[in-house]
Amino acid sequence: MASSPAFLGGAPTLAADAHVHWPVVDAGVRAAVDRVLARGVLSGASAPESAAFEREFAAFAGAKYALLTHSGTSALHLALVAAGIGEGDHVIVPAYSFVATPLAVVHAGAIPIFADVDEATGLVTAETIARVLTPRTRAVMPVHVHGCSLALGPILALAQTHKLLVIEDAAQAHGATWQGKPVGALGTAGAFSLQSSKNLGIGEGGVLVTNDDAIAEAANSIRSFGQNLTLPDRLEFDADRPLDGSKPLASGRIGWMYRGNELAAAVARASLVNLPERTRLCQENAARLTVALARLPGVLPPVVPPGATTVHHKFRVRFDLAAAGVDAQPKVFRDALARALRAEGCEVVLWQNQPLPSHPVFQERVGYGHGFPWTADPTTDFAAQYAPAHFTATQRLLDHSLLLFSQTCPMIAQPAATVDAYAVAFARVWAARARLANWAASQE
User: Fold this and answer.
1) How far apart are CA 84 and CA 187, in angstroms?
2) CB within 8 Å of 378: residues ≥ 6 apart
3) Cα–Cα dist 182/152, whole Å
4) What is the pLDDT tens value at each position of the chain, 444 positions in all?
5) Which residues are the active-site residues?
6) Which CATH number fits domain 6-22+275-352+395-443: 3.40.190.10, 3.40.50.150, 3.40.50.2300, 3.90.1150.10?
7) What whole-number distance in Å separates Cα of residue 260 and Cα of residue 243?
8) Cβ–Cβ contacts within 10 Å for residue 253, how many?
9) Closest by Cα among 103, 265, 111, 217 to 169
10) CB contact at 8 A, 160 and 187
11) Are 209 and 63 in contact (CB under 8 A)?
12) Is it true that domain 27-272 has CATH number 3.40.50.150?
């Protein structure tokens, strides 16, 4: 290893072929797809692969019900609508998440109210949620960001006090736990994503989970055009006539075509078998990397709330410039640090660079063309409600951090040697942080 970091002319720490790309399509996945193609049944909520996956994922998530959908966003939307959230209702969401979280609220005709996050964890807390409660708040949608469980106990207690529904956005958190229980169905309902980058990545897909009988029945109907389907109907699936139902159908409510498909379900089943072991190895690798990074002055590896676990879907590293003895503009230094780490052969991304309420869709609030759903609440000043100045902790988090690994090459896919090399690469760059800051200033 050269004494100088790569951005100063040294050789990169990681070889060009050090990373494993995700998702991993192994023999089990290929066999599962072949099984579906040989059977010739490619769709249907009650079809064999979909029904089996729903049973298996429900057990994995500790839920009574799991319903396969075609995306994590549709699972979130489905959970909200099945729980009765609708026009003009306020739903509290984090200012730091993926845009699917608040957009699912808008899809339901409800209005997202953004809560700032805890800067150390990137997660909303009962305290940040309580600050933005309104008389129209009907639900809270906390997000287990980066696969790290929220401190759910205080949030559930707050929701009970104010008679709020809790819809968990567990899109990134397959297998994360709170107080030893899997997240997702600890509130009213929850949703997972199966999009390719997720720890359980199959291409596109999602899962709604709940322990509530009424929500499960409503969601089962709504995901199939709002038709008069019931959960017991799924037992009447005829393998000889898989495209024909057992009774005439009529739509009794607004619904969507949110079902999954057999090929996706088969891939999900094959991948779910390997997920616990992949998660365990990922957690072990992350623990070593956390210890190594914590030794560096001013470097702050991910923080996990007491009682929670994380599956490290993403690995966000913060920095404290004062503690590091560096005088630099945070965003300028962040971008330079990302470039320097990439020069070492590391995968580094920002993923998000602004709070969600700063996105044009929420600043402009055109909605469905005439301002809906915000026009359903003419008494609230949403321009003030969504002012970026309210989300200072979220912005500080984004300005003072970056993500190690990427969606194409996530931590869960990497061997131990590659993860350990990140610790070496980061230490090399950090040892030259003063020169990095000077270089960053010159680039600016």
Assistant:
1) 15
2) none
3) 11
4) 447 999 999 999 999 999 999 999 999 999 999 999 999 999 988 899 999 999 999 999 999 999 999 999 999 999 999 999 999 999 999 999 999 999 999 999 999 999 999 999 999 999 999 999 999 999 999 999 999 999 999 999 999 999 999 999 999 999 999 999 999 999 999 999 999 999 999 999 999 999 999 999 999 999 999 999 999 888 888 888 888 877 889 999 999 999 999 999 999 999 999 999 999 999 999 999 999 999 999 999 999 999 999 999 999 999 999 999 999 999 999 999 999 999 999 999 999 999 999 999 999 999 999 999 999 999 999 999 999 999 999 999 999 999 999 999 999 999 999 999 999 999 999 999 999 999 888 876
5) 198
6) 3.90.1150.10
7) 15
8) 12
9) 103
10) no
11) yes
12) no
Angle between helices 262-294 and 416-431 (to 10 degrees): 40
10 Å Cβ neighbour count for 199?
Answer: 27
Asked if 330 and 1 count as a contact pair (C-beta separation under 8 A), the reply is no
Sequence ranges of the domains in the chain: 6-22+275-352+395-443, 27-272
Cα(214)–Cα(212) distance, rounded to whole angstroms?
Answer: 6
Task: Kindly write down the DSSP assignment for every residue of 11-59, as one continuous string.
Answer: PPSS-TT-PPPSS---HHHHHHHHHHHHHT----TTSHHHHHHHHHHHH
Closest CA to 46 of 232, 251, 257, 272: 232
Is residue 216 within 8 A of residue 210, CB to CB? The reply is yes
Kind and range of the H or E run holding 168: strand 165-169
Whole-angstrom distance, CA of residue 60 vs CA of residue 174: 9
